[in-house]
Amino acid sequence: MKTVCFKNDLKERLFFAEKNAAKNFNMPVLSGVYLETNKNSLKIISTNLETGFEAAIPAKIYKEGRAVVPVRIMAQLIGALFDEKVTLESVGQNLNISTEKISSLIKGYPAEDFPKLPKIKNPRVFSVSSEKISQGLKWVYNAASNSDLKPEIASVFFYVQNKTPLKLVATDSFRLAEKTLDHTVKNAESFILPIKSAAEIIRLLENKEEDIQISFNDNQINFSGKDFNFISRLIEGVFPSYESIIPKKFSADALIKKDQLIDALRSASIFSGHLNEITINIVPEDGLMEIKTRSGEVGEHASRLDAKITGEKVSLNFNYRYLLDGLQNINHSEALLRFSGENRPLLIQHPGDSSSFYLVMPMKNI
Fold first, then answer.
1. pLDDT in tens, 18-41
2. 204: closest CA among 55, 75, 326?
3. What is the DSSP letter of 143?
4. Are strands 103-106 and 2-6 parallel, antiparallel or unpaired?
5. Rounded-to-integer distance, Cα 72 and Cα 333, Å
């Protein structure tokens, strides 16, 4: 194999390849990136057997061939080069990487040992714009569980119903986020995507404007763009039935400046205890939201913020981190907080967009 390509193209794809490679002492080839010349392009593949990444970049091919080398080493080297063009040439199972003034040889693995990415059999297929899927995943991402003990909630639920808009949902049992996309999917079924795979899709779709084809069966899924494929396993199991906990009635609404509320929560966090607890008091007659917290070791703190409030007085305790995660997703100068009563969930929304919401369960009195 001998090929010449642009450094920045290679660097960008190696970033994603490294994310999807494995540290597997029993199969060291999984820590590698598979490189193969194909007509006027260089194919780049990595996998950890749970996810797989494939991309192609433009390249001038002098000799066809393939190679597998440790992706971390190659990514570090390409990132440190200052020349625009890079020459890749296989030497046995090793790879020589050179520019006009630099030459390096990376020891590789037998290319025939690298596993092939799986082909999805009998897939259900639909397409959606990269912007819609990216925005939807970003909205729900923080609400998913970080623990692998319950895989069905360390995930994003793609709720597909024929003739109704596609919904993305995530929950860790303490908060829940839902985003309804302006997109209808026909002849498909709901599925559960691992949260780590959702994070990769968010990174892959950054600054892309194209339609993404989604192909899946009961076990695997493939997200395909113009120059990449991302394959992931799917979660087996049942996503929690969540719709019954969404409040239908509200005892108080508060419209408040988002950045002021974020700053107030961050200030209160300095004085919160190990449970990250803060208290929110809603005082409708004064048009105030009060945020209070105290710690036996640090002291106590209170903030009072002006807000447009309708409804009854409310006093609830929350984990401030959960509130911050929900507020930071809102692309608006104001946030709408909807309280559903004592020991009932708080619903956070963009004030002019009912297609998404973020639900936070209150903490018990401390």
1. 999 998 778 999 999 999 998 899
2. 55
3. T
4. unpaired
5. 41
Contact yes or no for 337/359 (Cβ under 8 A) = no
Taking only the tens place, the pLDDT of each residue in 76-122 is 999 999 999 999 999 999 999 999 999 999 999 999 999 999 999 99
Backbone angles phi, psi at 282, to 5 degrees: -105, 125
Pair 19, 53: CB distance under 8 Å = yes
195-204 and 7-19 helices, crossing angle to 10°: 170
All domains of the chain, ordered by start, with CATH?
A: 2-113 (3.10.150.10), 124-243 (3.10.150.10), 246-360 (3.10.150.10)
Q: State the Cα–Cα distance between residues 274 and 295, nearest whole angstrom.
A: 9
CA distance 161 to 188: 8
CA distance 329 to 171: 15
Distances (CA, A) of 201 to 131, 136, 198, 224: 11, 11, 5, 10
CA–CA separation, 315 vs 341, rounded Å? 9
Residue 107: which residues within 8 A CB-CB, separation 6 or more?
Answer: 69, 93, 94
SS3 26: coil
H or E segment at 86? strand 85-91
CB 81 within 8 A of CB 99: yes
Residue matched to tokens 């559903």: 340
On the question of pLDDT at 296 being above 90, the answer is: no
Measure the CA dihedral 328/334/340/345, to 10°.
Answer: 0
Indicate whether this model's pTM tops 0.90. yes
Phi, psi at 246, each rounded to 5°: -75, 120
Torsions phi, psi for 313 (to 5 deg): -65, 145
Could you tell me which of 9, 11, 16, 13 has the C-alpha nearest to residue 202?
A: 16
Q: At residue 237, what is the residue type?
A: G
- 112-143 tens-digit pLDDT: 999 999 999 999 999 999 999 999 999 999 99
Neighbours of 162 (CB within 10 A): 10
